[in-house]
UniProtKB/TrEMBL annotation:
Domain DUF7044: 40-140
Residue span, DUF7045 domain: 424-524
Lineage of source species: Eukaryota, Metazoa, Ecdysozoa, Arthropoda, Hexapoda
DUF7042 domain mapped to chain residues: 166-291
PANTHER family noted in UniProt: CATION-INDEPENDENT MANNOSE-6-PHOSPHATE RECEPTOR (PTHR22255:SF4), LP06548P (PTHR22255)
Chain segments annotated as coiled-coil in the UniProt record: none
Ranges for domain DUF7043: 308-412
Protein name, as recorded: Uncharacterized protein
UniProt superkingdom: Eukaryota
Region entry Disordered, spans: 538-589
Amino acid sequence: MQHFIHFRAARAECRKMCLCLERTRIALLVLAMLLSWADACYFPIELQGEYVVQVTTNTPGNLVQYSQVNISAEAIPIWGHCHRRLGNRFILTDSSGGANCSRCFHIILRSRNVLQVRTEGLDKCYTNQDAAEATCPDEKTANQSDISKAIVFYKTKEVGGEDIKQVYCPINGRFNFVYTLKDGSINNMKCRDPVSEMDNCPSGSDLNLHFHNCDFPNKDVTFQCLGHWSGPGDQNYLALRDTSFMSQHQLPPYRCALYKEEAGTGNVFMAFSSDSTCSSNLDSAMSGYEMFSLSVVPSIGWPSQVDNSNCRFPPWARGYWQHIYIEGNTLTYKDHSTFKTYTIRCLGPEAATSERFAVFARTQCGEEMYTCIWLKRRGVNVLEFQLGLQSSTYYNSTLCSDSNFEPKVWITQGRMERLEESPCPVAGEYAGIIPDATNLCARLSSDCRSPEIMYYTVSDCSHSEIYEEREYRCLGQWKEDGLMYTYTQRRDVGTYECFVGSIVSNNEIYIKEAGDHCQRNIDPMHYGMKLTKKGSCIGNPPGSVSRPGGGEMPQPRPTTSWMSSRRPPEPTQPWKPITAPPRDASSAETHTRLTPLQLLLVSIIVYFVYRQ
């Protein structure tokens, strides 16, 4: 009997313990659910802004109509709030119709002014978020998926209502063209003779079309280039806005085109879709609703002094860089401040070992000048150059003098195809406070296995809520006047940034942004951010990039590294990153924060669980 009593007591104790464990499990599940509510999901600042999107509406004459869309830090109002982010895929939830509706959207930044969005269908939604996530396209194949299923967003305003930024047109120079409009009528409208003209003068961000001797009255049209990109099947896309928009032929103001340059001749074929999508009546660069066949207008010959020169640019500089291409005796430079394209021919170095070369330059609009170019090698993947401040209509030996390069204003360029990787100048994990926002903390960490990669995080110092995460690849660095300059490229959006730093010791560094072109005369010790070493570098598997939500992302195009202390916009919620270093479960920091209401719900539910 005594053994039986002990057995019953032990069993009761066991049941009590099991009940306690079950209650704990339930409480933890509830807590995990509420913590998931606190997960932050933000759209990158590069995606935010005001856009127009074509809507399918039956209107008289089938005129294209648009819907205004605003992408904020946390929502696309017509589709819902950002609930979860998986690389370029976003789970949006919308409860405006009553029950929660979840959909997956794959958003690709085609250019700074154009987005393409794919989703299973706006007529479908899921109450289960896992079911919505299952409809997300595979990240590796999404860029090559059917273009006809993409919704095209054309940006009209930047964040804060600023005008959109200019971008270069991929079609450059002067052309004559023939034209055909296939509007479905018996007699297609045409400009049969190649006497119509196209150019991008004076600005390389516009295409100016002058129609002559056509089946319709002569007219001029100016397109503003919004962006260009490569698509499936090696097709090249171009987005434009008709700034001289007229209702003639009922053509929409926002257009999408395919273009192809003929190898060896420079001639171009271009075709437009019939609306603002990139698929309606558009099959190829030679088959579309509107078709252009562009023939290069022959340029005048080069001066004899240029033709007779044996000068060649140095071998280390040859190849494709951000805005320049160098081959043999020719350098092509697209000036993104004036939107002029210079074709520069080498005349000769100032001396056998000189970095300065007398040159003859001609713009895409026919302007000509003699000047001097100074090429400076800053690393295997970085060069800087200057054009002489003064030019001349004739060759002048003083063009390469020191006085023509004072003050020194360098233009920094990163190589598009890296010859080898360049390690970042510091290694380890550093932390500091952003100088102009003392409530924001920054963390900089390097990758042990990929020393050219660095991660940068901005968070709230009090609550550790992450505002911004970025990943950089270092292209190269050099010392000048006691300071370290590092040129980097963002891995998520492809932009280039320069940072100037002062390395006090292995445990203390100061850094400051130095703009796109490594601005000099910046004192990081006085104006920069102090970072103190907190630990060694982190380790990522080689060839992979971690992302929020787990999994791997394929490595993006070539990039650069170091750190950015850009403060997020204070009036709006900052954004979460496309890539970030893996978060160690042992980290003392927490990156989510419950609201008072959520904390109250946790307390109530846990109380009733344990009260049973």
